[in-house]
Amino acid sequence: MSFFQALAYFFREASLNLVRSWKVSILAVLTIAVSLFLSGVFLLAATNLGARVAQWSTQAKLVVYVRPDASEEQRAALEAVVREAPWVSAVETVTADQARERFRQQLPGLAELVEDLPPSLEVSYRLEAAAGPSFEPWVERLRGAPACDSVDDDRDWLAQLETVIRLARVVGLVLGAVLLGAAVFPTASVIRITAYLYRDEISIMRLVGATEFFIRGPFWVEGLLQGLLGGSVALGGLWAVYRLVLQGSDPSLVQTLLSVRFLTPAEAVAMVLLGGLAGFAGAMVSLRRELVAPTEDAS
Q1: Do 96 and 117 touch, CB atoms closer than 8 A?
Q2: pTM for the full predicted model
Q3: Are residues 269 and 198 part of one domain?
Q4: 4 partner at 20 to 30 Å CA-CA among 113, 127, 198, 220?
């Protein structure tokens, strides 16, 4: 029998074993699926949030809030400090009424809690200038101006989001590794039970000279198929959750943050293959020789 004929035999027998023991196989498949799904949620959220932060970083602004009681001379001096910087590309004046209307549009549920918002200057600047030595002193000069109430720098909360992204990625990887490692054991148990049910056939195969590779091959492939099915189920569940997030006519904050993209084809294939690897590892763990070797009574 050639190698490809042996593979065809392995897959045929493994498929039959999955059908025959479908109840216990479902347990292994779902365990792997849940493990990959949970880690996939963290990694997909971190990926989308990272892409959104990178997009926002190119549009970072300074918001200079103006004291309502500032005089016209003080406001003019503050605006002059803003506009004199060579890295400033645009300045938009936002009145108190405009600020209040924006707040109502973005957070309608909280609109009643806010009565007065201060006027402000929204300053767009070249991002590369923020790394220069003159940028921070200029910001401090704005904060010290008599007409300035406070300065909101987008870079502050973007840096906080980047910290959250790194944490989500680490949590996703650690959680995925732990859960996927734990998922190996249900797969191993299922394969062990299947091998026990076929112990008489295995003994006969050994007596007629079958190699260990030929005996164990169908069980290895069975674990691989369970893992691939688990990875496919996890991928389908992740896609369903992603589409659910995108539903709704009014975009929510979650939709804005997590609707950049789904997994790439390479990432989707990697998820399914990772499930297959976990299933194959479970089969390898379960098939120690003493589990499939003929018993003394059988011999």
Answers
A1: yes
A2: 0.64
A3: yes
A4: 198
Residues 197 and 282 both lie in one domain: yes
Q: How confident is the model at residue 1 (pLDDT cuts 50, 70, 90)?
A: low
Cα separation, 110 vs 123, whole angstroms: 26
Decide if 61 is inside a domain. no
Q: How far apart are CA 56 and CA 165, in angstroms?
A: 14
Q: Other CB atoms closer than 10 Å to residue 36's CB: what's the count?
A: 28
Task: Please calculate the CA angle 215-220-221 and round it to the nearest 5 degrees.
Answer: 105
Whole-angstrom distance, CA of residue 225 vs CA of residue 217:
12
Q: Sheet harboring 120-125: ordered strands across?
A: 88-94, 120-125, 61-66, 148-153
Q: Kindly state whether residues 237 and 209 are assigned to the same domain.
A: yes
Is 206 contained in some domain? yes
The secondary element (H helix, E strand) that includes residue 93 is strand 88-94
Residues 50-71: pLDDT tens digits?
777 777 766 678 888 888 888 8
Distance CA 294, CA 199 (A): 7
pLDDT of residue 294: 46
Judged against a pLDDT cut of 80, whether residue 148 lies above it is answered with yes
Domain span including residue 140: 68-146
